[in-house]
Write a sequence for this structure.
């Protein structure tokens, strides 16, 4: 890339992200790039396509303030500092749904939006998931997250009808389905 | 959804987006939701998986300031005010690559990130694309966007290796591939 950051200014700092305005120069001739650009820094994210031992998809229904509606998505969230992404995926799955992963595999790492986001999305497939006897997480009780299990046929219909609301969740599902077919 | 927006404050206004902080209340009991939330307003986006008449994928390589690197993605961009999303998709394809769509079909509408983004991503499959005789767009000359055509086999390898950098582009590709198989 022929551009470098010449100057940056923090516009907003919140507990979960930082928004920055940057001025760029062209490396080749040191000329300024005309417009300012914006970069949104957040910790990296995980998203998990989780299947029960009888191959049902484990999804979460939750209120989302961007869309201002209940959404149906995969479990997922932010990776803690110094946390391994696969560990974060298993943790988020269990915290949000109560299910523990039998095995967990990476199906890809990608930018959620390379134009503005500086972080990465780590996508995982979790198979043979089960509700452990020492279950500690009961997300239904919080009323914020509801757990839904769908057969793969039901999931296909739901996706076709636009019932999976989050692009990053939909991508994790499709990458996982391809991974299962190819491995 | 049991939450409503009680108050909002614009934190940042730029030509391409607005960042807002919102306070929420629970509809059921009018109690405030503890934390502030953030909403990023931008116009809705289109992303196009475009295939030439001989079934090569038309991709763009461009500098992206979030990732601060050259990325390989689908053509795409913002929908103009009052513009039909399918028209925007055909326009962005032609502006960014020079190719004109023979036919264009919707493969889905989804939120790019329902937690913070208020807009939508409209995904299209453009088939039978060709370089028209009255070609007006020569993106190679601008040095910002380079056009790459890949066979579907090459695209599969590229995706598997993480060579498609944008989650929204990867989703558009996989939704389009499914659409082709199912229709």
């Amino acid at each position: 890339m022929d551009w470098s950051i010449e100057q940056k200014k923090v516009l907003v700092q919140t507990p979960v992200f930082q928004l920055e305005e940057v001025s760029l120069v062209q490396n080749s001739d040191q000329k300024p790039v005309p417009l300012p650009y914006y970069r949104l820094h957040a910790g990296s994210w995980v998203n998990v396509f989780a299947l029960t031992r009888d191959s049902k998809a484990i999804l979460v229904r939750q209120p989302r303030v961007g869309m201002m509606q209940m959404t149906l998505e995969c479990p997922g969230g932010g990776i803690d500092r110094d946390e391994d992404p696969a560990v974060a995926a298993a943790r988020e799955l269990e915290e949000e749904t109560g299910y523990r992963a039998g095995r967990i595999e990476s199906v890809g790492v990608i930018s959620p939006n390379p134009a503005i986001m500086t972080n990465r999305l780590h996508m995982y497939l979790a198979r043979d998931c089960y509700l452990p006897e020492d279950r500690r997480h009961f997300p239904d009780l919080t009323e914020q997250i509801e757990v839904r299990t769908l057969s793969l046929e039901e999931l296909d219909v739901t996706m076709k009808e636009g019932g999976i609301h989050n692009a990053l969740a939909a991508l994790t599902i499709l990458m996982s389905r391809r991974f299962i077919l190819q491995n």
